[in-house]
Amino acid sequence: MNRKIPTSCIIDNDPIFIYGTRRMMKESFLCETILEYHNGQEAIDDLIRRQDNGEEMPSVIFLDLDMPIMNGWDFLDQFMKYEQLMRLNIFIYITSSSIDPRELEKVNSYKAVSKYILKPVTPQDLELILEALNMV
Predict the structure, then answer these.
(1) Which end of the chain has fewer CB atoms at under 10 Å, N or C?
(2) Bridge partners of 8?
């Protein structure tokens, strides 16, 4: 079974989280190309541009909720407005250090979100993602 996701995406403003997650993904052979965005606005603009240009779209998005300029909630709201993006088989994983039950409840109200992952992302989390994508 192929264990590689062609393209994934990390949307987070924390360089340490990005570095650690990127490294773990490379070590677990999870992903060939990893797109990085430091806020939701940068991400939504580029994802729409990539879609319009017929470029490779990410299969998996790791999305932080607490970012400047456009946070994760606003990104989700924008993402869900674009039917072209919603039609794609993109799995969005919220990555957060918050255990606030209200936040968890709000996450569950977004049909585009696959799962909530408590930071830091672990090798076990990556295995579960591969299983969810039927790549194990």
Answers:
(1) N
(2) 34, 60
